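Incident log entry.

Two folding requests arrived from the same account within the same minute. Monitoring flagged them as a possible duplicate submission, but the sequences differ. Recording both here for audit purposes.

Request one:
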Amino acid sequence: MPATVEGRMDRLATVRRVTRGIDRWTVVRIGIVAGVFYAAWLAIEAFGRPYEFFDMKIYHGAVVWWASGNELYEFIQPDTTLGFTYPPFAGLAMLPMATLPVAAAGWINVLASIAALAVVLTALVGPIAKRCGWPRWFAVGLAVPLAAATEPVRETFGYGQVNLLLFALIMADMVALRWLARGRANHSLVGRGPLARFFFSGAWAGAGIGLATSIKLTPALFIVYLLLTKQWRVALTAVGTALGVTVATFVVAGHESMRYFTSVLWQTDRVGAADMTPNQSLAGVLARLYDSVETPGLLWLSFSLLMLAVGLSRAAHAHADGDELTAFTLVGLTANVISPISWSHHLVFVIPAVLVLADAALRRRGASQALSGVSGLRTPIWFPALTGLRHAAAAVGLYVLFVVSPIWPYEHRLPEVSHYADGLYGALMENSLALAIILLVAALPWRPGAEPAFYGDSPALHFTRQRNAA
């Protein structure tokens, strides 16, 4: 037998040994995940923008300036009017990157953000995959590139932003609340060490929100939500963490802390004009509608209070019905709406919003299929085939909107170009992401019993236990 034939047969035998025991569907799933990663990359190329770690250059330049003995909030990035705007604790946390080149700091942030996104999606998608009988690795493998293609995530990567790291801190508390509700410390952790029992018991819930608030003030709205829903221990942990970190920062960097809280915090013009297209908050919408660089103050305050009441009220109802994920999502989206500045890369809570809508569609369809077999039950002709269709369509539409991100083709800047230069359609597109999150705050559905976060018995938790037992 020729040597070439023998070599080919040896290679085939090696492949068979390696692939023996691997299910063919596993190979198919790996191929699908690879295809989705490639499609996500093409989407980023098609709809993303040129990224050069613009924000990371500001952070890096500011901490290098500070480490050289200068005042942190005196730094201005060359060729811009922008400086460091975060609380001083964020400056301390970023200080180690002063020893790195800016490109290295940017790529480390990208890798850390991807890891944070993967961990969060594992926690959020895992229960859905388990209920539907999908391999968790496959579901997460699809979710990560799909999320990476959206406007908030790709902008966070490209600008060197910290949004996904803060997102992970906040969602860690939601997972801790999940563990508290399940009481895992009472059964599955017996025999483990005290550190493991403490961690998986969820007793530290609130620390993530407290740390996030110390780095950026907008997560403080989650503390308000915790107080509103009477989750006292978690709220106290969050407040204690934020105060403890802030006081410790005063000890280490007293001058910068005093200047930030007495001066820099109130200088809203440090981050840019309200009407800038990437500002997809309510304030940005109103400024653009008025074709002004400034937001009409009283009108913004009135509508902000209304959206705050709607968002927190709906979040509290979602919590009471046992859906903590939707409650957290509503609070995050409400913070985006009412903040004076919410750049498009801040809108990361649209990711769990898509998941909530998709899961609501799956749950409704599953329930309809179960009911369709009940004898004597009269149902509409569309039942169950189209049940959950509107939630699925909303999930797909929301996802496509945040992948395509139609704000950029209609970007305008005063006084050179009016925000009405492209007519009504252009104005709608320029405000489309903001309008979407406002609509989500008002209409995002919750799923009773899906994510309970109670310390004792409650109707929602009792319902969930019965459903899981069945």
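Request two (distinct sequence, not a duplicate):
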Amino acid sequence: MKVKIDLDMTAEEARTLMGLPDLEPMQQRLLEQLEKQVSSNMSYMDPEAMIRAVLPAGAQGLEKFQDMMWGMARSAMGGGSGAAKSGGAKSDTKKGE
């Protein structure tokens, strides 16, 4: 025997029906505290220091990462000699600058 009951109620009504506590006021207080902490810590954050932390070698590290990604893409595409030569020419130009 199967019994199917469809109830049309809001989440608040379902919580009340099941006897669950309303946690919304506590969640609001926690969100307010989190906002205060984040906004107070934003003044201590220096964008340049954040970039240095993420990319220790700076722009050179980014270029090396890009070269590595291009190399992997070339090898995945079959390592065509034309792509390798043009990539090598670009890196030679960068080194010469």
